[in-house]
Design brief:
It holds the Pfam family DDE_5. The protein has 15 helices and 12 strands. The strands form 2 sheets. Strands 1, 2, 3, 4, 5, 6, 9, 10, 11 and 12 form a 10-stranded mixed sheet that branches. Strands 7-8 form a two-stranded antiparallel sheet. Helix 1 crosses helix 13, helix 12 packs across helix 13 and helix 13 crosses helix 14.
């Protein structure tokens, strides 16, 4: 899949070895551990791949997108946009700053990136990504230069790269829907762009957002109080780990015009009563069940993050520059997509026997490692032990020297 976009045979070999190592059950995944698993005597080949090797990243991203679309098809597609954060120490890694991350639900020192997931009724994978640069970074040219950020990169709010990623995906799946959380649903520019293209969406809104009613502007949380009891419908937002996720749903017409129909969708928990609100749009009227199904697909991107991090090391990069971050993430997304598409193909062609749980990505990764173990010998293991200890000794000397200078 990726070979035509890598200039040299050594680069192609390194990329294949990295993808395979990313799927291995390693305790930690970084250039050192991947290189050891791949049988390299040192991490330099992988570091070269991530930093300096000649490769067309845009073409590789397009290749990944095409790989996923060709295997999952273009029917019943929902593009889900969301961001995730990776906790980091220090301040030199590209994009790292104290900022909010949904990973912990609070402000942390972290990197935040926006991803696009491609979801169908039975499968999902990540197909695009953009690293978010806080305004503090964009106001510091020296910091940008040190991290290798291209000169043409400027500050952009998260919905802006989301729109660009969605636009690229829609070139191949023009009838897809789009789903997203409040960050994207509350952005009028993104919603206007989708409506102009005639793309249906279901995106979360804040409880304090207002809509126009015959009584005048009302916050949607106030509107929920006015919904009559018979207007609520019990519907499943899709299957979860513990069964169907049933909620009560109410649909309120917002307005319609020549561009399409708009609604406010309200979701109510059947246990706690907690409410969530969604902007909805479609070029023509659709039933409640369709909007609920699109809203339910938002969980798929969370599953993609969880599996991409747990199985393919999406968040375990220990790289500092703009280029190395994008390359690592792209290779991790490719590794995870391979597992996701293997699972989809298996379920499509081999019905699950009675009394057996369907094959999961985790089990596929275990099977790959068991059936195709890496070649290793005692000499290789001992050589890596020496390599690590030599570099750790060098790092310790550097730390002590720096401490001495600071205290003098």
């Amino acid at each position: 899949m990726i070979d035509p976009h890598l200039a040299r045979p050594e680069t192609r070999t390194s990329a294949r070895e990295v993808i395979r190592a990313l799927l291995a059950p390693l305790a930690r995944k970084n250039c050192w551990t991947l290189a050891e698993h791949a049988g390299h005597p040192a991490p330099y080949r992988i570091q070269h791949l991530l930093n300096r090797a000649v490769l067309d990243e845009a073409a590789l991203a397009a290749c990944l997108r095409g790989y996923v679309i060709s295997h999952l098809g273009t029917e019943d597609v929902v593009l889900v946009v969301d961001e995730t954060g990776d906790l980091k120490k220090g301040t030199h890694t590209a994009g790292v700053a104290r900022q909010y991350t949904g990973t912990t639900g609070q402000i942390e020192n972290c990197q935040v990136a926006v991803y696009l997931a491609y979801t169908t009724g039975d499968a999902h994978a990540l197909i695009d990504h953009r690293l978010y640069l806080p305004s503090s970074w964009c106001e510091d040219p020296d910091r940008l230069r040190t991290a290798g950020v291209p000169e043409q990169v400027e500050f952009a709010t998260k919905p802006e790269p989301a729109r660009r990623m969605i636009a690229t995906a829609l070139e191949h799946t023009p009838h897809a829907w789009v789903a997203g959380d409040e960050v994207y649903g509350r952005n009028p520019g993104l919603r206007a762009y989708l409506e102009k293209r005639g793309v249906g969406y279901v995106m979360e809104m804040a409880a304090t957002d207002t809509v126009t009613t015959p009584r005048g502007p009302l916050a949607v949380k106030e509107l929920a109080v006015l919904v009559p009891g018979q207007a609520w419908r019990k519907r499943s937002a899709g299957a979860g780990a513990k069964g169907e996720r049933f909620y009560d749903w109410a649909l309120i017409d917002d307005h319609a015009d020549t561009r399409g129909v708009r609604w406010v969708l309200i979701r109510r928990s059947r246990t706690s009563g907690d409410l969530a609100f969604f902007h909805c749009y479609a070029p023509e009227a659709v039933p409640l069940a369709r909007l609920v199904a699109v809203a339910g697909r938002r969980w798929r991107v969370e599953e993609s993050f969880q599996q991409g991090k747990g199985l393919a090391g999406l968040d375990e990069h220990q790289v500092r520059t703009w280029t190395s971050w994008h390359r690592w993430s792209l290779l991790a997304m490719t590794a995870y997509a391979f597992l996701a598409l293997c699972r989809a193909r298996e379920l499509r062609h081999h019905p699950v026997p009675i009394g057996v749980v369907e094959l999961a990505c985790n089990e596929i990764a275990r099977l790959l490692e068991a059936l195709f173990p890496p070649e290793s010998d005692l000499e290789h293991v001992l050589a890596w032990s020496v390599f690590r200890r030599v570099h750790q000794a060098h790092a310790r000397r550097c730390h002590y020297r720096r401490q001495t200078v600071q205290e003098s």
